[in-house]
Design goal:
Layout (H helix, E strand, L loop, with lengths): L7 H8 L5 E2 L1 H8 L3 H14 L3 E4 L5 E4 L12 H30 L1 H21 L11 H13 L5 E9 L5 E7 L3 H12 L11 H10 L10 H12 L3 E2 L1 H8 L4 H13 L3 E4 L5 E4 L1 H4 L28 H22 L7 H52 L7 H10 L9 H14 L3 E4 L5 E4 L1 H17 L14
Antiparallel strand pairs: 1-3, 2-3, 4-5, 6-8, 7-8, 9-10
Helix pairs in contact: 2-3, 4-8, 5-6, 10-11, 13-14, 14-15, 14-16
Length: 485
């Protein structure tokens, strides 16, 4: 990284004042530096503070440091508060998981009886069906017994492996696979004997109890996934990218796309440029060459990967009913202790058999109830994002086409891969936002309807391709010096 210019302090002092929008000429005038050094000074300021790049109608490049100066990478007050809430939630989850484990251990005798019944059923099946002798493992119930004991205190019930599933609207998404245990192996064996597809391992009952309270884990993108994807895209596309392509890769909305673009410029030592046709782009010479690109992140367009849903429990109705029944029994029994229906058990007995299980059972039901209301806006946003993906898939394919909203929805439905059909009503609010973001233009169609074009998007995408064609692929060449020699 180049040494900071001494005039950086002058610019930082000026950034403390209102109106934090600068051209290179503004900074050259402010500091007395040559134009090239003024641009380098602005790039150093971008490394320190959040900044957006803007292009004016006259083709000027503006560095906008926002209404409030903010250090790059420093969390905002909202982000700090979100981190505190997340920490409190995680601490609560650990504490209440301990409570659940203890209560499950109390019910261990019940589990043991169930397993004995299962063993007797298997023995009866073996005696009545001579063809099944080779398929039955009489050690399985005891293996399940041992796994239930371990599973009570084994909170990490999912494996890192993922597989694709579909939600009720046909959106394919990734979900974590349950760890393979003797319990779900037995279930899969039964499915195979009935000629059914066994599929991925089912969750154990203990895992279902934890998911009932806290919800199943969602497959979230790994840290810096978007940044790695942009870097991989650059290495495959002559190290040139523009804000519309960043939006197409990561799906950022509004100013967030511009902020992410400048973050990539700073992160990968890029050089923001205005093309001779007035289009903002950035080139990244340090990413152009590669000696080992085999492990680069896959490049997946925003519209080709749907978000996982927000299920409340992720359990089937039967399993939820069993869990509700067990906890309801615990709630009623402990309530009976508290009202004295089971006799006077004294202060210690009332606490251990009354207040402790009663408060636990109330919390057991209250947590998923509160989570339900917390999930409602997230589910609505996910649905909106998925609609946005399907509309963007069409717009980026033919930005110059004159399309009415019904035509756009019809084309999005034609490109569907099993997803439920979109309606004009659910697409309209999302499309209105896209028209604003992508600078769409409305005009009257041949039949009097309103149609939309996106000439700016088409122009910029074509300009990026032209810029790449002038650069050509980078060549490493042969090694001419080796320190080993």
């Amino acid at each position: 990284m180049p040494q900071p210019l001494p005039q950086l302090q002058v610019l930082e002092n000026r950034l403390q004042q209102p109106n934090r929008r600068f051209t290179v000429g503004d900074v050259a005038t402010l500091t007395g530096l040559p134009v090239d050094d003024a641009q380098r000074l602005l790039e150093q300021a971008m490394q320190l503070y959040d900044c957006r790049l803007q292009v004016t109608e006259a083709g000027g490049l503006v560095y906008n440091f926002g209404e409030a100066l903010h250090r790059r990478g420093e969390p905002t007050s909202a982000e700090r508060w979100a981190a505190v809430k997340q920490w409190l939630w995680q601490a609560f989850k650990v504490g209440f998981r301990v409570c659940i484990s203890v209560m499950l251990l109390v019910y261990f005798v019940v589990f043991f009886v169930i397993l004995l019944v299962l063993l007797l059923a298997l023995l009866a099946q073996a005696m009545s069906d001579s063809d099944s002798d080779a398929d039955i493992d009489f050690g399985t119930p005891f293996a399940i017994l041992g796994e239930i004991i371990r599973g009570i205190f084994w909170w990490n019930v999912y494996s890192p492996a993922t597989y694709y599933d579909q939600d009720d609207r046909g959106y394919a998404y990734r979900r974590y696979q349950a760890k393979d245990t003797a319990e779900n192996k037995l279930g899969r064996r039964k499915k195979r004997k009935k000629g059914q597809d066994d599929g991925p391992p089912d969750k154990t009952f203990v895992a279902s109890v934890y998911d009932f309270v806290f919800g199943p884990p969602r497959v979230e993108p790994p840290p810096l996934a978007n940044q790695k994807e942009v870097a991989a895209f650059l290495r495959r596309n002559q190290a040139v990218i523009g804000p519309p392509e960043v939006r197409a890769l990561a799906g950022w909305e509004g100013e967030a796309a511009d902020d992410f673009f400048t973050d990539c410029v700073v992160r990968f030592n890029g050089q923001a440029q205005l093309s001779e046709n007035g289009v903002l782009y950035a080139e990244f010479p340090d990413l152009e060459l590669s000696a080992n690109a085999e492990k680069d992140a896959p490049v997946v367009w925003y519209w080709d990967e749907y978000e996982p849903p927000y299920p409340l429990t992720g359990n089937g109705a039967g399993r939820n009913a069993a869990i509700v029944g067990l906890n309801a029994f615990n709630l009623v029994a402990s309530g009976a202790v508290l009202v004295g229906a089971l006799g006077n058990l004294g202060a210690v007995g009332s606490a251990l058999l009354g207040w402790v299980p009663f408060l636990y059972s109330l919390t057991f039901f209250a947590v998923p109830g509160l989570r339900y209301f917390n999930l409602l806006p997230r589910r609505a946003q996910r649905q909106r994002n998925n609609v946005r993906k399907r509309l963007m898939r069409v717009l980026y394919r033919q930005p110059q086409a004159a399309l009415s909203l019904p035509d756009l929805v019809a084309q999005a439905n034609q490109l569907a891969k099993g997803e439920a059909p979109l309606t004009v009503a659910e697409a309209e609010p999302v499309f209105s936002q896209l028209v604003h973001e992508l600078q769409g233009e409305a005009e009257a169609g041949d039949q009097g309807q309103v149609v939309y074009r996106f000439p700016r998007l088409a122009y910029e995408l074509a300009e990026f391709q032209r810029l790449r064609s002038t650069r050509g692929p980078a060549q490493m060449g042969r090694v001419v010096f080796d320190t080993r020699d």
